Amino acid sequence: MLNFALVSLRRSFYDGQKASHGIPDASWRKCVDCDQLVPPRAHHCPLCQRCVLRRDHHCFFTGSCIGFANQRFFIAFCFHCMLGASYGTYITVEYIYIAHMTSDAGLVHFIPPLTALEWLFGFSSFGFLFFVLLMYLCAMAAIGSAGIMIWQLFLVAQGSTSFEYGKGVIRYRTGLLHNFRAVFGSYWMLNFIFPLIWVDIPGDGVNYNFSKCV
């Protein structure tokens, strides 16, 4: 829950009037919606109505944009969701077999439409239907969280955002270890155990090192 809160509280909005990064160079561009010059990796979010530093995407579940300041907390949140939902799936399956299944029951009873029909015609209880649906809900949450986490870790390893990867931008790929430290900080692995609120992210979200191959 702490990672969830940090994703929502740690925003990556860019305000040109409050920022002090010197004179913008030719790589900066003007955001028409915000009417200001923004750094190369900042993009406007039509939902937040703000420009976000190193914007990756807008997360509808947390109701916030994922960017420079909160991406590490978002990835850790997905990791914990995957673990929790996987454990929930396991516990639900165990309970179904102990409390509702007989020795001669087959896997066909776990198919939701058939389970609903069995309950409708009185061949199974509502409790069995409820826990079968709960099992699928937990399983889908685990798979979805794992998929998002793996995609985000892939982008971190590439030194890219979703937008940059889609556009083939490779100028920020500065090595695997450096890419991970740029998102998670120096003790990046510990973020998956506990959110390191006191550890600052390297950089300011505006200036970045470039790949030597570019």
From TrEMBL:
Keyword ATP-binding in annotation: no
Organism lineage string: Eukaryota, Metazoa, Spiralia, Lophotrochozoa, Annelida
EC number(s) recorded for this UniProt protein: 2.3.1.225
Gene Ontology cellular component annotations, sorted alphabetically: membrane
Membrane topology value: Multi-pass membrane protein
Organism for this UniProt entry: Capitella teleta (Polychaete worm)
A matching Pfam family: DHHC
Protein name: Palmitoyltransferase
UniProt keyword list: Acyltransferase, Membrane, Transferase, Transmembrane, Transmembrane helix
Domain remarks in the Swiss-Prot or TrEMBL record: The DHHC domain is required for palmitoyltransferase activity.
Catalysis performed (reactions): L-cysteinyl-[protein] + hexadecanoyl-CoA = S-hexadecanoyl-L-cysteinyl-[protein] + CoA
GO MF assignments: protein-cysteine S-palmitoyltransferase activity
Palmitoyltransferase DHHC domain sequence ranges: 29-165
